[in-house]
């Protein structure tokens, strides 16, 4: 039960102090990054290092041999991490603020050994006794898509460090007792620039970079200052120079939905410029290509991760996000520059209005997480329709209805309760949007049988299968099931939508609170068929706060208790344990938004 694992956590749980174990580690990751190069570490183990570009694949994994435990600590006010090893050795890691170079200072109490497991796409060439060069041809994966760029990396050690290749994909790095350095960079020239600057100068300028960034943040309550700083660093480290933010350890792309939650968290923490950079990133892509997809590459343009129905939901987030930034002080001139993209985002959604409802995006959280069956893709989505209407209303008010869309807004609003309110609550999907015979004959997306992405064909049962499964697998006719998922009920209060009456929202929040108090659990599916999406805690806390429910105090503690030792929230939880992707900007930003919103609601 959640109460049991909450009680196990002390106040210093919110510190960015990772107690690493070779065997049985909890998997918490921290991130280093400067917009050009990024690295994810599990304690002293470099799990990934990549960039430029941010959407590039990792060079490999650099593991520490023969050491069973370590303590990794983020230096306050920076993204510099120090690892104290069980043998008395000490290592300090940073990515230089000016160069795409990871610097590891090693103070070894005895001989240390590291193993580099090279990613399969790279080939290696020995350059000097202390330096190896690595190269990946065009076509290496950008997430699941072939890239159109080459990748270059090098690893170099100081004079006494030895790097030996044991097979095509494995290297052993030996470091004797004493002070040594290891550099991982894009090219030898980058390493030389860092060496010429000197270690002390690199540390000083990197400290100054992070101090200047954090100084722009808002003053937050002292009891959550450290966790707010950790989230701010986590997001900034994963934001490319072009403005796109990585979606965590697994996903080296910028996802529109994730960026919305990140933007809300950044604005709450006081980082307006970083929030604007996200939207400017999408604006440049739209200007160049004329569209925005589910996710796009960071640091190199033109690679898109496409899902079903990419013209809905994510486009709704873009519009709402633009007005969030405007209201936070983004400026009229900035919003005016975005209006052509916002108009496009609204127009493409209108094409999909059927019975005044929009469908689901194929990578929508509930579908991707298995909480909502993929067969419900073409059903009416209460959340996508609500996002569309919320953005449309703001666009109409700002432009004085220059496009004559108020008639559309009035019609969708008038039918929203009819389409999505049942028994005093909000349903997630409405199968009445389309009949199965109206579904398209083909679509790009995820096969309902094997889950591979391909051009899918519709079966006689209106299910979608890939070429490998079509004609060989039979899926039953989809049931006309209606779902009431937890997140969808809380979304209006997070987005600021007014289409759902407050008495309906309060009733849903009260019912969710009753179930929580009965079961001490928050399944994203009220029927308990899965775990909990990581941001549901923030959604629930925000909803409880907005309706003034006393359970908010407990959810505040619960939400904070989920933060891992590296200072992040995870993609999913089950019984208080993380699963899925770690070091997540989306969940971390939404949850810290809710934490601050709750604290702001308390009497002074």
From TrEMBL:
Q: Extract the InterPro entries matched here.
A: 6-hairpin_glycosidase_sf (IPR008928)
Q: Name one GO biological process term.
A: carbohydrate metabolic process
Looking at the record's lineage, which domain of life comes first? Bacteria
Q: What is this protein called?
A: Uncharacterized protein
Q: Which organism is it from?
A: Hydrogeniiclostridium mannosilyticum
Write the lineage as a comma-separated list: Bacteria, Bacillati, Bacillota, Clostridia, Eubacteriales
């Amino acid at each position: 039960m959640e109460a049991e694992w909450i009680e196990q956590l002390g106040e210093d749980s919110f510190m960015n102090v990772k107690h690493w174990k070779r065997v049985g580690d909890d998997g918490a990751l921290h991130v280093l990054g400067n917009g050009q190069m990024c690295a994810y570490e599990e304690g002293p183990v470099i799990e990934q290092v990549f960039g430029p570009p941010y959407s590039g694949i990792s060079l490999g994994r650099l593991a520490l041999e023969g050491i069973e435990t370590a303590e990794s600590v983020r230096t306050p006010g920076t993204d510099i991490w120090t690892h104290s090893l069980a043998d008395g050795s000490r290592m300090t890691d940073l990515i230089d603020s000016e160069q795409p170079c990871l610097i590891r200072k090693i103070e070894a109490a005895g001989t240390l050994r590291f193993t580099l497991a090279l990613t399969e796409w790279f080939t290696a060439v020995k350059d000097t006794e202390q330096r190896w060069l690595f190269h990946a041809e065009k076509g290496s994966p950008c997430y699941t898509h072939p890239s159109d760029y080459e990748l270059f990396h090098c690893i170099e050690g100081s004079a006494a460090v030895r790097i030996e290749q044991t097979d095509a994909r494995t290297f052993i790095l030996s470091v004797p007792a004493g002070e040594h350095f290891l550099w991982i960079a894009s090219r030898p020239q980058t390493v030389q620039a860092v060496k010429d600057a000197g270690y002390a100068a690199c540390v000083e300028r990197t400290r100054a970079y992070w101090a200047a960034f954090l100084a722009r943040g808002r003053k937050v309550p002292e009891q959550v200052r450290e966790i707010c700083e950790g989230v701010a660093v986590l997001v900034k480290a994963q934001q490319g120079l072009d403005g796109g933010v990585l979606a965590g350890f697994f996903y080296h792309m910028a996802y529109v939905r994730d960026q919305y939650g990140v933007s809300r968290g950044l604005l709450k923490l006081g980082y307006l410029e970083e929030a604007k950079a996200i939207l400017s990133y999408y604006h440049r892509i739209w200007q160049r290509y004329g569209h925005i997809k589910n996710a796009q590459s960071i640091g190199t343009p033109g690679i898109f991760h496409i899902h079903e129905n990419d013209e809905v939901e994510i486009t709704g987030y873009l519009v709402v996000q633009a007005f969030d930034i405007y209201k936070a002080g983004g400026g009229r001139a900035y919003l005016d520059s975005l209006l052509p993209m916002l108009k496009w985002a609204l127009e493409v959604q209108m094409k999909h209005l059927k019975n005044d409802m929009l469908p689901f995006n194929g990578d929508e959280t509930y579908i991707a997480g298995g909480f909502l069956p993929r067969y419900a893709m073409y059903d009416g989505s209460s959340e996508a329709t609500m996002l569309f209407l919320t953005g449309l209303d703001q666009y109409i008010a700002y432009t004085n209805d220059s496009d004559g869309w108020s008639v559309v807004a009035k019609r969708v609003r008038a039918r929203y309760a009819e389409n999505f309110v049942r028994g005093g609550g909000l349903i997630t999907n409405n199968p009445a949007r389309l009949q199965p015979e109206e579904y398209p004959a083909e679509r790009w997306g995820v096969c309902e049988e094997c889950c591979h992405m391909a051009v899918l064909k519709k079966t006689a049962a209106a299910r979608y299968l890939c070429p490998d499964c079509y004609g060989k697998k039979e899926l039953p006719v989809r049931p006309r099931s209606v779902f009431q998922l937890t997140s969808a009920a809380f979304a209006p209060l997070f987005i600021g939508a007014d289409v759902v009456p407050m008495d309906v929202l309060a009733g849903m929040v009260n019912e969710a609170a009753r179930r929580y108090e009965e079961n001490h659990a928050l399944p994203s599916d009220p029927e308990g068929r899965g775990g909990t999406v990581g941001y549901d805690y923030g959604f629930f806390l925000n909803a409880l706060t907005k309706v003034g429910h006393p359970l908010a105090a407990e959810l505040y503690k619960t939400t904070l208790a989920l933060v891992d030792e590296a200072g992040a929230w995870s993609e999913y939880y089950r019984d208080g344990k993380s699963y899925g992707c770690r070091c997540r900007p989306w969940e971390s930003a939404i949850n810290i938004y809710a934490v601050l919103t709750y604290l702001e609601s308390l009497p002074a």
